Amino acid sequence: MNIADMFKEDRTVLSYEVFPPKGDKPIESIYDTLDELGKLRPDFISVTYGAAGNVANTDTIDIAGYIQKKYSIQSIAHLTCVHASFENIDRILGDLQSRGVDNILALRGDIVKGMEPKKDFLHASDLAKYIMDKGGFHVSGACYPEVHQDAKNAIEDIKNLKIKVDAGVNHLISQLFFDNTVFYHFVEKARIAGINVPIEAGIMPVTNRKQIERMVTMCGASLPTKFVKVMQRFDGNPEAMRDAGIAYAIDQIIDLVANGVDGIHIYTMNNPYVARRISEGVESIVRGRA
Ligand code: FAD
């Protein structure tokens, strides 16, 4: 089933995100994690792509192909374009096709310090249009409930998101957030702007304090008082912190599903234990709407 059709069913789509092994670790080092995630039968698994768009590294493509072949679970390969040329992208599209991967999360990517962007693709919408013109792929995109850091303001960001959807993106995955109200306001604005594709909520189960600090710096997610209190209370007790992070994520998901969210995308951080605890906790909730 293709990604768009998943959202037509009478249930909430549940998906995971993984990243390729870091540093010199071989690709095989992620296989145990994938085995565990595969058992949980998510609707799809997306695989991130190196920040600098390292075109020599084909791990994303290999892992996305492996997920589909080994577990018969749909995968989405992330693909960034700001440091890529048309030739780079053509080669990657060919590699994806040869592995039977036809779902792409089209991204601009962050501009790497000291690296001049190539001029072929300025925005994710340019990549989405390029892929759609080639044909044969389903294209997803990213969105930002708390506004993308480079955007002038929320209105410009939504207008730019509409351009991306008009370019062919037919499914969006949101940046992580900890305050559901922020997400509801964002979805409302997107719908008013005529963005009618499914919008999945990105949920990051926070399991340690360092991780939160990194995330907040990286993506500027605001932290509700309830969340801050939990983190302060359990700092120094890793097990309690992990359990509290899992419980917080489950609580967010229940509220999102009750409010009719299209899908939940869990940033697993390659941690199958946490993914399992959350998936089991929300199994009956996401699988059937009342
Ligand atoms: P765009 O949609 O191009 O938007 C970037 C900025 O440009 C925004 O401020 C937007 O308002 C503005 N803009 C967009 N279009 C126009 C236009 N036509 N005219 C003027 N301004 C415009 N990064 C990675 O390196 N690898 C990954 O695998 C990865 N996965 C991600 C997955 C998700 C779900 C999310 C939310 C982010 C991910 N990122 C990843 C991070 C992402 O690459 C960065 O946030 C990047 O800075 C923006 O990418 P984008 O595709 O959202 O860009």
UniProtKB/TrEMBL annotation:
<keyword id="KW-0274">FAD</keyword>
<dbReference type="GO" id="GO:0009086">
    <property type="term" value="P:methionine biosynthetic process"/>
</dbReference>
<dbReference type="Pfam" id="PF02219">
    <property type="entry name" value="MTHFR"/>
</dbReference>
<comment type="pathway">
    <text>Amino-acid biosynthesis; L-methionine biosynthesis via de novo pathway.</text>
</comment>
<keyword id="KW-0028">Amino-acid biosynthesis</keyword>
<keyword id="KW-0560">Oxidoreductase</keyword>
<dbReference type="GO" id="GO:0005829">
    <property type="term" value="C:cytosol"/>
</dbReference>
<dbReference type="InterPro" id="IPR003171">
    <property type="entry name" value="Mehydrof_redctse-like"/>
</dbReference>
<comment type="pathway">
    <text>One-carbon metabolism; tetrahydrofolate interconversion.</text>
</comment>
<dbReference type="GO" id="GO:0035999">
    <property type="term" value="P:tetrahydrofolate interconversion"/>
</dbReference>
<dbReference type="InterPro" id="IPR029041">
    <property type="entry name" value="FAD-linked_oxidoreductase-like"/>
</dbReference>
<dbReference type="GO" id="GO:0071949">
    <property type="term" value="F:FAD binding"/>
</dbReference>
<dbReference type="InterPro" id="IPR004620">
    <property type="entry name" value="MTHF_reductase_bac"/>
</dbReference>
<comment type="similarity">
    <text>Belongs to the methylenetetrahydrofolate reductase family.</text>
</comment>
<protein>
    <recommendedName>
        <fullName>Methylenetetrahydrofolate reductase</fullName>
        <ecNumber>1.5.1.54</ecNumber>
    </recommendedName>
</protein>
<keyword id="KW-0520">NAD</keyword>
<keyword id="KW-0285">Flavoprotein</keyword>
<keyword id="KW-0486">Methionine biosynthesis</keyword>
<dbReference type="GO" id="GO:0106312">
    <property type="term" value="F:methylenetetrahydrofolate reductase (NADH) activity"/>
</dbReference>
